[in-house]
Amino acid sequence: MPTRIHEFDWPDRAVVGTIGLPGARTFYLQVRAGAQVVSVALEKQQAALLADKIDEILDQLITVEGNPFSVPTSTPIELVDNDQLDAVLEQFRTGAMSLGWDPTTAQVVIEAHPITIVDADDNDEWLVEDSANEPEMLLVRIPVGTARAFAMRTREIVGAGRPTCPLCGFPMDADGHICPPPEI
Fold first, then answer.
1. Mean pLDDT by 10-residue block, N- to C-terminus, for the chain (184 residues)?
2. Taking burial as the number of CB atoms within 10 A of a residue's CB, which of 6, 64, 105, 112 is the most buried?
């Protein structure tokens, strides 16, 4: 069965956002081009790592001698996006992700693949967790300025969660917190 690719080259918008309250938030990578909107769920740690790795790629590009790419060192103010997510219809829950650089278009490339499970009866058969068992993926190409803004927003979204306890370092819930006992 062919893979259904949700492909976005130069999208109008590419952001990470959340739905829900801190401690019970669902993270989404959402991409929009015209009327087409695709939202894929991902883990908080995936979002944080994606932002870090995007900045790492961009920072490395800046150091390349004779670099023909105009990579911003900070987020261009005109690219800051603090708007809420568009209406979310989850396409799939992200499992594996990959990140790359396309020098021919000077774009950061993000790929998101659904979580896969192994069929218990046959270890060679992989099933994709979606309603039709149709393999799919999200492929997004964003320019360097947009990538820098994407990383900044993602770090802000990840950091806007529950506050951490100054004693134990674990997240505190709004209804209270009890520090775990110290390990012996």
1. 89 96 91 96 96 95 80 84 93 95 93 80 49 77 94 93 80 78 76
2. 112
